[in-house]
């Protein structure tokens, strides 16, 4: 009798937890998570979760996509601007903890979130109207997906860009398999594996942003953009170029990674993650040893998935990359390391994840092939 009561209580607790997760992912609070404004000929998207660093939710995705498509076909809308509320972040990523909770109980919203997020990411990359992302602040993960595929990306001295997914048992998704391999040399692979943080003007110098403008001038830039009368792409570019050219802040500073460009290209030119680790070990420089230390803490599974993702994505279209990445997300959701990474970094914050398997050598080729394999009728389709 006692055992039956215990089982019933546990079952009810699981149902309650699932309902809480669904409510968290789907709810629209009294203060909307995303705002839409028409200013002049511009459609303006405002990510409106400043206390959560504008972290992206499924609810936000489901509001942004139809509005973006509406503005794209609306003859009265000439440009689309997206920005974040508050002064700290454009968008610091997705709601990883909610995603982890959902995955643990088999919530189908996990599949829906990735699917709908990638469809939105693709829409920003194929938008027929000039799409301008003002990445004034922290821009990671989901925030990168909302910005980097658009025609124009404006960084400021407050911008902090990173794709730190290998530290939590994931991989740099939201199209990371497309834009990262297309950065100069091996920079993209370096950023993908290590999660290195780019700041300020370096975000533009690396090629992630198209322009750099001082944060205090973003308001004036936005006004000049919305004041344009039926602007062409070249007219939008001229306004952005003028502000970029006026920006003197940090203008004389060299790209922070410039002194390591040769080393990055040399050390990260390899046929496997193991070979990169060997290169770093043999090099012996302070820079190489630091990267070796960082990579040694990452999920071995994530490192291998990321390496192959970057190799494959270099020759794929953006849509093909999203199809590949959707398959990889589902492999990660079926696995161990994502949940352990979230526990160690976000929940318990002990920064001591126990990866399974714990070494690169134990990540099997069979697992890798399975992760990249077609999901059949469950594949992402545009």
From TrEMBL:
GO biological process entries: L-valine catabolic process
Record-linked Gene3D superfamilies: 2-enoyl-CoA Hydratase, Chain A, domain 1
UniProt xrefs under NCBIfam families: PRK05617.1 (NF004127)
Catalytic activity: 3-hydroxy-2-methylpropanoyl-CoA + H2O = 3-hydroxy-2-methylpropanoate + CoA + H(+)
UniProt record similarity statement: Belongs to the enoyl-CoA hydratase/isomerase family.
The EC number(s) this enzyme carries: 3.1.2.4
Localization, UniProt: Mitochondrion
Lineage, broadest ranks: Eukaryota, Metazoa, Chordata, Craniata, Vertebrata
CDD domains, per the entry: crotonase-like
UniProt KW keywords: Branched-chain amino acid catabolism, Hydrolase, Mitochondrion
Role description: Hydrolyzes 3-hydroxyisobutyryl-CoA (HIBYL-CoA), a saline catabolite. Has high activity toward isobutyryl-CoA. Could be an isobutyryl-CoA dehydrogenase that functions in valine catabolism. Also hydrolyzes 3-hydroxypropanoyl-CoA.
GO cellular component terms listed in the entry, alphabetical order: mitochondrion
Organism: Astyanax mexicanus
Main location: mitochondrion
Listed name of the protein: 3-hydroxyisobutyryl-CoA hydrolase
